[in-house]
Amino acid sequence: MTDRTPDTADAAHDPAADAAAVLDLVTGGVVAQTLRALAELRIADHLAGGALSAEEVAERVGSHPRTTYRLMRAAASLGVLTHEGDRRFGLTGRGRLLRTDLPGSLHSLVLVQTSNAHWQVWKHFPEAVRSGSSQATKALGADVFEYYARPENAEEAALFARSMGDMSALVTKEAVAAIDAADVSTIVDVGGADGQFVLALMEANPLPRGQVLDLPHAVEGARREAGKRGLSDRFSAVAGDFFTEVPPADLYLLKTILHDWDDDQCATILRNCRSAVTEGGRAVVVEMLIGELGEPDLVTRADMGMLSITNGEERDLDEFDALFAATGWRRSKTYPVGGGYVGLELVAS
Ligand SMILES: C[S@@+](CC[C@H](N)C(=O)[O-])C[C@H]1O[C@@H](n2cnc3c(N)ncnc32)[C@H](O)[C@@H]1O
């Protein structure tokens, strides 16, 4: 008897292919920084009119020609740029998502994922696993939302809000179609950032008044967005703390809120909504769901991100249902809302 892994497992393995796969995985950070450099230099915007040589791009963005060529060559091997020969590069479908001026742009998201806050905190990731909690406070001197609220981080906070808005664009169309809000009089978007979700629901439904509840630094952006859409007369933005209290509403929206927090904190937010909801009212939680274990899955990767930067986590449906049951809610409907997200509609239990 030896304690080796059985040979049957070895037989199915190709060590060279496995080594290549691990190298591919461990250079994920290089991939992220390559996307970041493309996004910071706004190279996709310069290629919007058609392919350009690396030297032409370097001249337009004020970067070094040789390193710009190397960056664009790497981006072509990642499927973000096309190589058209003669050191000329164009945009693929993925590359187009790095443009700043298109609906569905992921430009801000790329910058946020590689921004100071996120990158600083990743340095401490093994310690987060060892200790059971995010090391954001150690890395940033504050939890991530307090960090964003500091005046010196206003630009990073605005970028974060913009990236959340862009991600909202991926889900709002389907979510708005799925949510029956025709007869609702008040909708509160809990932690609603710039209000994209509630404002889209208001555009589709002329009756409801909408409100964003968020931290003080975030509410001005929501007011501006409502103004841009001509919805200011039915909209308000309140600075507050969803752990303390939420305003009364017939419909609460909680989009990518619960994944930021641990179970006890989620329970506080859900209980606050439950005690303020009007008779017969509802809540819609929008999140990604952890799927089958062991399958390739962006959500388990996002879960590592949540552990790193917040004390939150991605959850499976059973875990969400347990949270709802413990806080006076029952899931009454479930619908896909695009971008890999689902809507979990809740009524009082
Ligand atoms: C992940 S973002 C989601 C934003 C928005 N719901 C969306 O999906 O685009 C979390 C939001 O919660 C807000 N937030 C964090 N802590 C809060 C608190 N204690 N009270 C109210 N809002 C808070 C943040 O400012 C941020 O806008």
Give me the number of helical elements: 18
Biggest beta sheet attributes: 7 strands, mixed
Task: Write down the overall geometry.
Answer: globular
Q: Uncertain runs with pLDDT below 50, 5 residues or more?
A: none
How many angstroms does the end-to-end distance come to?
Answer: 56 Å
Calculate Rg over CA atoms: 22 Å
Domain O-methyltransferase dimerisation: 24-99
Domain O-methyltransferase C-terminal: 122-330
GO molecular function: methyltransferase activity
InterPro entries: COMT-like, COMT_C, COMT_dimerisation, SAM-dependent_MTases_sf, WH-like_DNA-bd_sf, WH_DNA-bd_sf
List keywords for this structure.
349 residues, alpha/beta, seven-stranded mixed β-sheet, three-stranded antiparallel β-sheet, 18 helices, 10 strands, 17% strand, globular, binds S-adenosylmethionine, WH_DNA-bd_sf, COMT-like, transferase, methyltransferase activity, S-adenosyl-L-methionine
